[in-house]
């Protein structure tokens, strides 16, 4: 009789697992995971998904949201001059700022490895990240102020200019009512009547505050009490004004002051034949003058307004000025992220390149940068996303008259919707376009993150 072998199946009472238990356990784990994720999902839906869907729907309605207009808002978006300007400025931001920030961050990250005080340097560069865009915008609005007494940059520009170039002695001065001078086609002021050698001229000016006269100024020389010398042309340039009132126009009165340091030119047939500078009493003299008729001219440089610096917040420089403020804030972010990637690089490749005789620049270009390519890409794409959403700095730094010259899509969306336009249909369309522009960069970043985890 053949032996029959039997196999005992452990019963549930004996401690074996029932067939349905793994499925129930898996469902329980899924349920617990959903319960834990539910608050975050609700919050994400309320703050992200719902606004996006509502904006998409709202973009197909009119300004008040009562009438369906189809794609009219999108048509207006791409034909409106202000929105086109915002699109062009946004494109400039995307093309310039992320690349510049990534390059500066890379250079600073590499350089900080060569200094002892690297930590202090990183803290100093990263510190602007702790400042809000509102505070940074107000700070740079003051930095770019046109008044050199308030704006730091213009204070430096005016200081350098005045160091290398002489400023005008009497800005804003003009001829007095005596009509001895007339305007000389942008070259200053010229005597109305020609002068012959042996004659004196009296050139009175007004528009100069007595308190701002040079300390070396003396009472004006009176040509009436002065005997002209043959073969010379002389005269006086003076302030034709008596403090406290009185005096006669065109006549040197006893209390009137000479104007020292005024440049005077002697002209003949429109050409300058001699030049001099007035003395403390305002007198001047041209000796050895040949017979003939001459003109006496006070060049425009004597009366030019003082150099006021650069118009940083003007239409031509407003966008680069705001970009500079953005670079100041975000350079620390770029440097720290690239520095973290640099610290994780294998040092053996760098040492091998040095042993092979490569210079530091060759190592940087052919070893460091290729190995940092993934980190540089992530930083660049992140900055592209942030640049597309720039709003605060442009709104705060750009003055009202030039705000349209610095306009970007995010600011245009706010201006159209809430900043006076009250057209939330068009504003929603701009928001949808902005989202579509950001999505490729976001998708690229997510794909790289997933590839790095796998």
Q: pLDDT below 50 for ≥5 consecutive residues: which ranges?
A: 1-7, 11-17
Distance N to C terminus: 60 Å
- Which sheet architecture does the biggest sheet show? 5 strands, antiparallel
Spatial shape = elongated
As a percent range, the share of strand residues is: 5-15%
Number of helices: 13
Task: Summarize the model shown.
By secondary structure, the protein is of the alpha+beta class. The chain has helices at residues 21-58, 72-79, 81-112, 118-126, 133-143, 152-164, 318-343, 347-355, 360-371, 373-388, 392-397, 409-417, 424-453; strands at residues 174-175, 181-183, 188-191, 199-206, 233-239, 263-268, 271-277, 283-286, 295-299.
Blueprint of the fold:
Elements: H1 21-58, H2 72-79, H3 81-112, H4 118-126, H5 133-143, H6 152-164, E1 174-175, E2 181-183, E3 188-191, E4 199-206, E5 233-239, E6 263-268, E7 271-277, E8 283-286, E9 295-299, H7 318-343, H8 347-355, H9 360-371, H10 373-388, H11 392-397, H12 409-417, H13 424-453
Parallel strand pairs: 4-5
Antiparallel strand pairs: 1-4, 2-3, 3-9, 5-8, 6-7, 6-9
């Amino acid at each position: 009789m053949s032996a029959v072998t039997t196999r005992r199946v452990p019963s549930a009472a004996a401690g074996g697992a029932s067939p349905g238990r793994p499925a129930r356990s898996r469902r329980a784990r899924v349920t617990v995971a959903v319960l834990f994720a539910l608050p975050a999902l609700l919050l994400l839906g309320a703050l992200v998904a719902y606004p996006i869907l509502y904006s998409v729907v709202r973009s197909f309605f009119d300004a008040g949201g009562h009438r369906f207009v189809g794609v009219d808002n999108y048509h207006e978006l791409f034909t409106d001059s202000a929105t086109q300007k915002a699109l062009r400025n946004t494109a400039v931001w995307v093309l310039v700022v992320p690349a510049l920030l990534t390059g500066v961050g890379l250079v600073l990250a590499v350089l900080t490895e060569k200094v002892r005080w690297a930590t202090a340097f990183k803290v100093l560069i990263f510190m602007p990240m702790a400042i809000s865009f509102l505070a940074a915008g107000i700070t740079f609005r003051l930095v770019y102020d046109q008044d050199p007494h308030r704006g730091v940059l213009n204070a430096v520009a005016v200081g350098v200019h005045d160091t290398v170039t002489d400023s005008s002695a009497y800005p804003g001065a003009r001829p007095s009512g005596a009509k001895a001078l007339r305007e000389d086609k942008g070259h200053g002021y010229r005597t109305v009547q020609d002068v012959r050698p042996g004659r004196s001229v009296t050139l009175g000016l007004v528009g100069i505050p007595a308190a701002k006269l040079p300390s070396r100024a003396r009472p004006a020389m009176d040509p009436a009490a002065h005997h002209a010398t043959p073969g010379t042309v002389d005269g006086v340039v003076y302030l034709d004004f008596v403090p406290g009132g009185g005096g006669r126009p065109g006549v040197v009165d006893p209390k009137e002051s000479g104007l020292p340091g005024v440049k005077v030119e002697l002209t003949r047939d429109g050409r300058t034949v001699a030049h001099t500078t007035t003395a403390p009493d305002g007198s001047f003299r041209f000796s050895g003058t040949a017979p003939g008729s001459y003109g006496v001219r006070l060049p425009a440089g004597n009366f030019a307004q003082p150099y006021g610096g650069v118009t940083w917040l003007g239409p031509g420089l407003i966008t680069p000025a705001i970009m500079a403020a953005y670079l100041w804030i975000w350079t620390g972010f770029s440097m720290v992220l690239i520095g973290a990637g640099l610290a994780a690089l294998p040092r053996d490749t760098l040492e091998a390149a040095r042993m092979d005789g490569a210079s530091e620049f060759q190592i940087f270009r052919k070893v460091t940068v290729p190995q940092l390519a993934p980190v540089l890409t992530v930083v660049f794409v992140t900055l592209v996303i942030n640049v597309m959403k720039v709003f605060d700095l442009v709104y705060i730094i750009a003055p009202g008259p030039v705000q349209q010259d610095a306009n970007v899509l995010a600011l245009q969306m706010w201006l159209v919707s809430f900043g006076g336009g009250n057209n939330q249909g068009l504003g929603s369309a701009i928001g949808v376009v902005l989202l579509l522009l950001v999505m490729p960069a976001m998708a690229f970043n997510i794909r790289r993150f997933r590839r790095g985890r796998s």
